[in-house]
Amino acid sequence: MKFPNLSRVGQLRRHLKSTLNDLGVQAKLGMDRTHGELLVHFQNSDGTVFAPVWISVPDTTTDGWEGCELLKGRWSKYEVGHNGWTFYRDLHHISEETLGTDSLIALEKIRAALVSAGPVLTGKHPTTTSNQHFMEAAQQLDDRLILYDDVVIECRRENGVESFNFEDPCGRTWRISFEAGKAIIQLDGEVFSTLPWDQSAAIATLVSDEVYDAVVIRDAGLD
Q1: Alpha-carbon span 32 to 61, nearest angstrom
Q2: Cα 164 off chain centre by
Q3: What is the 3-state secondary structure (H, E, C) of 105-143?
Q4: First vs last Cα of the chain: how many Å apart?
Q5: pLDDT digit string (tens) for 70-111?
Q6: Residue 55 near residue 68 (C-beta atoms within 8 A)
Q7: What is the dihedral of CA 120, 129, 168, 196, to 10 degrees?
C-alpha cells in the first residue's frame, strides 16, 4: 500500500535534513482549514519556531510534487530591549509557485524557499513577544533614552505577563508591564501611571520625561 503523503514528508526529511536542522524545524503534515487541502508545513516540536513556507497538496492519492503549490511568506524581525528579545511581523505577502514533475528540482525549490524565508520565533518562545504594542513601546523608549549609555532595557515574562525593566541614571528601577490591554508603569515598586497599552508614544514620553527631569535635578544638585 502506498502512502504518498508520508513519502513526500520522508523526501523532505532526507534531502533537506541539513537545511531543516539549521532552521530548527521539521516537515509536518497538516490541513488548510479554508480550502480543505493537505498542507506540508515546517515547525519545531513545541511550536516556538516555524518557517513561513507551506506546500499545498491538492491530490493526496498520487506520488510526487507535480501540481503542488509552494507558498512562501515574508516576515520582518525586530529587536526588543537589550537582552535578546525579538518581535516578528507578518508582512502579509505570499509568493506562489507550482511545482513540476522533477522531484529533485522541486526539492531544491523548497530548500531555496526555506533558506530565503528563514526561521520565525512565535510568542511561545521564551525570548519573543507577539505583542506589537510591547515592541513599539520598548523601541520608542529606547530611542528616547539613547543619551544614557548605562540604561539597559531588559524584557521579561513572568506568569504570562510581559514587561520591560531598567534602572535609570539616578538608580531608580522602572517596570512597564503589559496586561489586559494596559501598560502599568511602576517606579521603585510603586505604580507611577497606567495607560492603554496601544499608546506606545505616550508611554515612552511619560517615562523618558520623568527620567530626564530626575537627571536634571540630580546634576543641578537639587535632589
Answers
A1: 17
A2: 17
A3: HHHHHHHHHHHHHCCEECCCCCCEECCHHHHHHHHHHHH
A4: 82
A5: 999 999 999 999 999 999 999 999 999 999 999 999 999 999
A6: yes
A7: 140
